[in-house]
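fyi for ur records
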Amino acid sequence: MTEQNSPRQNLFKDSLDRNWNLVIDYESILRLRSGSLAIDLLDVAAENNSLLQRLASDDILLVATIYALLEPEIKNRGLSEKEFAAGLTGNGLENALDALIEGIANFSRPQRGAMLRKVWSKLKSSESLLSRQASEMLDNPEIDQRMSSALKNRLDQALAKLNN
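which gave:
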């Protein structure tokens, strides 16, 4: 196999500081299609990106997918599924998802891969913006006042019902 035709590796570091090589190739895609997850990774690069949204929002599905892709390497390292999954939290989970998306983009035809990278970049930017906006909103002292007022009103209503 020439360098040009070899599967590209997508390295990521989990939250336990372990390095992993996530290779997306014919064999790994078939393994996921026929496995218990029955996931077609190439659906991520399709027009309907529901799988991309599911992987980005369902951390358990993401961990199970990454485990299925890395299962031979995990077993070679003598790790159980639980021991492996312990490293997929926080930044490790984010790193794994980024490596997965990049791997699928690398495997896909160039135009589909480029589109997937753009979609993923936009999703991450939107998520970051929403997170900042929500944080700013929650840091606003007016929110605390509104919550206190709403809680007091509910408590007053409950007490009034008890007194009647």
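Confidence is low (pLDDT under 50) at residues 1-6. thats all i got for now
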